[in-house]
Design brief:
Helix content: 10-25%
Organism: Zooshikella harenae
Pfam families: N_methyl, PilW
Number of helices: 1
Protein name: PilW family protein
Shape: elongated
Strand content: 25-35%
Distance between the termini: 103 Å
Radius of gyration: 28 Å
Number of domains: 1
Structural class: alpha+beta
Keywords: Membrane, Transmembrane, Transmembrane helix
Order of helices and strands: HEEEEEEEEEEEEE
InterPro entries: N_methyl_site (IPR012902), PilW (IPR032092)
Number of strands: 13
């Protein structure tokens, strides 16, 4: 008598193998998705940090030089343009520190005689050795991406040096506070916004606050409402899936006489 040997798999064994295979595939997919999400989030955070560093470096460089002029010329310049006579409203840009931009961010108009005869974009055309330049920093948007913009105003010739240019993407909000001294010394007594500066000659330092993203229209985090407060901005509510961080720094104006922050 001969026994029939089993050939192949039974239906039950095949179903069990398929189920186990599906579990393995699902696990691999889950690991892949988690790794991909982590990679995107890490990349976004790195870009946010890079954008913030570039923006703060650019602003700090000019703020330190505010009010500079060649000592041989004997001219004392204001640190910032706050009067329409220095930086009139034209070409849809109010070139004045007293203004706010379309994003309700502060505008920073830094005045000095540049050593290299260039504006904040690097333009040299039309800038002579003795010209006083006002670098206007503000936030604007293009294609849904907010950026730190700059444009140079030639106060000597009363003309724009060139067209506006974005410097750093992902800068969504900029708030400025000014460190002012009292009448008896140079020690900074308080930091106030532009509306509370009574005497601009008493400004000794500038505190900058930035709300920074990776500069992409979509992010890598859960979509929900997040709240931010940038210096004196008040509560800012934004609903999307974009990861943002707040960065602040304080810069002493080198051409002031203060040794204190």
């Amino acid at each position: 008598m001969y026994l029939n040997k089993q050939k192949g798999l039974s239906l039950i064994e095949l179903m069990i193998a398929l189920v186990l295979g599906l579990f393995l595939v699902a696990g691999v997919i889950q690991i892949f998705l988690g790794t991909s999400q982590t990679y995107r989030l890490t990349g976004d955070i790195a870009r946010v940090q890079e954008n913030a560093r570039f923006a703060l470096d650019i602003l700090a460089r000019d703020i330190r030089m505010a009010g500079y002029s060649d000592p041989d010329k004997g001219e004392i310049l204001p640190f910032f343009a706050v009067a329409s006579a220095d930086c009139p409203n034209s070409d849809d840009n109010n070139c004045s520190t007293n203004a706010v931009d379309a994003n309700n961010s502060d505008i920073l108009a830094i005045m000095f005689d540049p050593i290299n005869d260039t504006d904040c974009i690097g333009n040299t055309s039309g800038i002579d050795e003795d010209d006083v330049i006002i670098n206007l920093y503000y936030i604007d948007e293009e294609d849904g991406i907010a950026s730190l913009y700059c444009r140079g105003w030639n106060r000597t010739d009363n003309s724009w040096v060139g067209a506006q240019q974005p410097l750093v993407d992902g800068i969504e909000r900029m708030q400025i506070l000014y460190g002012v001294t009292n009448t008896s010394g140079d020690a900074i007594q308080k930091y106030v916004n532009k509306d509370d500066v009574d005497d601009w000659t008493k400004v000794r330092a500038v505190r900058v606050g930035l709300l920074v993203s990776a500069g992409s229209p979509s992010g890598s985090v859960e979509r929900k409402t997040r709240s931010y407060t940038v210096l004196d901005s008040g509560k800012i509510d934004i609903t999307d899936n974009v990861n943002r961080y707040i960065y602040t720094t304080t810069i002493v104006i080198n051409n002031s006489s203060s040794d204190y922050i």
